[in-house]
Amino acid sequence: MNLTAIILQLISGGVGGNVAGALLSKLNLGPIANSILGIIGGLITGQVVNSVGSSGMSAATSAATAAAGSGFDMSSILSNVGGAGLGGAVLTAVVGLIKSKMSKTA
User: Domain count of the chain?
Assistant: First the structure.
């Protein structure tokens, strides 16, 4: 487990949650709840994207990655950031939708 990838997932998820809250004002839960949900969604989705990406590598890609050593793989970084940001936004929107539906029925 790469610590840099986890930190990127946490930050991207938090940003994604806050962006979703800002764009979907009816589903906005406030900056703290948006951040927390974004972080959780970003971490979960980032780990899924990371595991799917590493298992879906071809032999040539994994050999090229191993040959690169400890250098950063830009496509891996972008997929982590994108997946985590989207996951944070989706989880924030889903919880905001559930909260708004529950408050209308009560």
Answer: 1
Q: Does 87 map to a domain?
A: yes
**pLDDT at residue number 67:** 44
Q: What is the pLDDT of residues 27-75, one digit of tens each?
A: 999 999 999 999 999 999 988 887 887 665 544 444 445 445 556 678 8
Say how many CA atoms lie within 13 Å of 2 toward its Cβ.
Answer: 16
Phi, psi of 29 (to 5 degrees): -105, 0
Residues 6+ apart with CB under 8 A from 24: 93, 96
- Indicate whether 84 belongs to any domain: yes
Q: How far apart are CA 11 and CA 35, in angstroms?
A: 9
Q: How far apart are CA 25 and CA 79, in angstroms?
A: 27
